């Protein structure tokens, strides 16, 4: 039995030669027992994007299996957490990763910005995982218990950059001078690992103007950079002259 986490690009059953059961987030988080139900009498595979332990939900599946006496085997995979090395930044210089969520008219959290600032003050890069809205319900449908879902939305690099720029402005109005500015060097990545992957580097302001095409996108806010990291990022720069001017202050 093959369970497959519901993806942006759905795999074809012909490729696996098996029937696939699509499992959305709700199924995995709230109906995990159904995935393990027949594992004591037949092999059950759970297919995910990226590394299997990139989400605590998948650790929960392992713990449930152990409690039921079901043996398990993990096949590791690449994920965005290590694939971002394709831009030339050294992985051991990344600090805590953050999630940048879509703002609404009434909810505009800034906690992720504080973590980015802390990383930068420590000379570390920050991988920003951008929001994905799949099978989300409107407030009205949620309150009425209707299983009607909004169209999927995937945050882009320029949307994330715009929110960071707005936070910078808010902090300045409060009398602060953030460690991250419009001129902080960032990296935008789209569809990493695909034949049409795209990488661009430049200032945070420039990231708010780039168009990298379809999902999935990620954003990196750089910390202190080694000369080799700078040389690599220059390969992807939106504007090589402004890149050198803005990056010079963060070299080692």
Structure description:
- This protein has 252 residues and is of the alpha/beta class.
- It is built from 11 helices and 10 strands.
- The strands form 3 sheets. A 5-stranded mixed beta sheet has the order 4-5-10-8-9. A 3-stranded parallel beta sheet has the order 2-1-3.
- The longest helix has 17 residues, at 157-173.
- The N and C termini lie far apart (52 Å).
Write the layout of secondary structure elements.
Blueprint: E1 2-5, H1 13-16, E2 20-23, H2 25-30, H3 32-36, E3 45-47, H4 56-67, H5 80-83, E4 98-100, H6 111-121, E5 126-130, E6 132-133, H7 139-143, E7 153-154, H8 157-173, E8 185-190, E9 198-203, H9 204-207, E10 217-221, H10 227-234, H11 240-247
- The general outline is globular
Strand content: 15-25%
Average residue-wise pLDDT = 87
User: Which sequence of SSEs, written as H and E, runs from N to C?
Assistant: EHEHHEHHEHEEHEHEEHEHH
Structural class call reads alpha/beta
Largest sheet: 5 strands, mixed
Q: Separation of termini?
A: 52 Å
Backbone CA Rg: 21 Å
The number of helical runs is 11
The count of DSSP E runs of length 2 or more, i.e. the number of strands, is 10
Roughly how much helix do the residues carry, as a percent range? 25-40%
Q: Poorly predicted ranges (pLDDT <50, ≥5 residues)?
A: none
Largest sheet: spatial strand order: 4-5-10-8-9
């Amino acid at each position: 039995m093959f369970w497959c986490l519901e993806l942006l690009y759905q795999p074809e059953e012909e490729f696996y030669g098996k029937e696939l059961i699509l499992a959305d987030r709700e199924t995995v988080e709230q109906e995990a027992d159904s995935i393990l139900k027949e594992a004591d009498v037949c092999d059950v595979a759970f297919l995910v994007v990226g590394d299997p332990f990139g989400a605590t939900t998948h650790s929960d599946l392992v713990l449930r299996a152990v409690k039921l006496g079901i043996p398990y085997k993990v096949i590791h995979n690449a994920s965005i957490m290590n694939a971002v090395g394709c831009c030339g930044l050294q992985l051991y210089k990344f600090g805590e990763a953050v999630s940048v969520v879509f703002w609404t008219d009434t909810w505009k959290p800034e906690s992720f910005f504080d973590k980015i600032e802390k990383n930068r003050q420590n000379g570390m890069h920050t991988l920003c995982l951008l929001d994905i809205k799949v099978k989300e319900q409107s407030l009205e449908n949620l309150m009425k218990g209707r299983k009607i879902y909004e169209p999927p939305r995937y945050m882009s690099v320029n949307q994330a950059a715009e929110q960071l720029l707005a936070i910078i402005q808010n902090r300045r109005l409060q009398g602060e001078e953030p460690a991250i500015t419009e001129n902080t060097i960032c990296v935008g990545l789209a569809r990493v690992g695909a034949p049409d992957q795209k990488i661009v580097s430049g200032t945070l302001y420039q990231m708010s103007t780039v168009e990298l095409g379809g999902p999935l996108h990620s954003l990196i806010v750089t910390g202190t950079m080694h000369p080799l990291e700078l040389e690599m990022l220059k390969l992807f720069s939106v504007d090589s002259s402004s890149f050198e001017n803005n990056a010079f202050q963060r070299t080692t």
